[in-house]
């Protein structure tokens, strides 16, 4: 009887040890590796200050993510933001205005050519984000209509196509993306108003110390293959246009 009891106990112990040994790491799922080449969400693939320029790449430095390599090729499109004047504001051109009051007393005016009948910036139709804001695209609460120039962001802004120009200002047609209605916003200018415009460029416009924003895909090393690169001059605050939004390589305009 004693031998029988010992044999049964020994068998039970062996089964217990075997069960413990088989539960090692098989129940733990393997860690998933992010897909290579997936664009970073929430803004350009890389943006910031140009730290170095090579034949087919640049090094982009940001305060949030350090240094990012951006590769470009013959298929990459470039735009350069340069100084402009009121004479560059013409009927049919697109503008993004920041200022105060109603009518809007313009402090800054950004000018670009219309894409067909649409004004767009950063790939989004219907308006442009002023330089110095933290996003490349205009934002508004989900489902809400685009405010007019007297209410947008608390007043003092206008986004859209210019319908008329005078010596003291111009009129901006703002499209409501929800209703399709158009609102005329009056903009006045003064001797202190500053102007910039976006124009087609090429890789020769890339200079150390300038600001860039690159759209494209990042590989598993973080290097970006750029489809488009936007160039602008640094402000007194540096290349801070996109820094507030970036999760990758901060700021252009």
UniProtKB/TrEMBL annotation:
Pfam families noted in UniProt: DUF5666
Annotated InterPro entries: DUF5666
Residues folding into a coiled coil are none
Source organism, top-level taxon? Bacteria
Q: Which UniProt keywords apply?
A: Signal
Start and end residues of each DUF5666 domain: 160-229
The segment annotated Disordered runs over 26-46, 120-162
- Which residue intervals are annotated with compositional bias (Low complexity) in the record? 130-149
Endpoints of the signal sequence: 1-21
Give the protein's recorded name: DUF5666 domain-containing protein
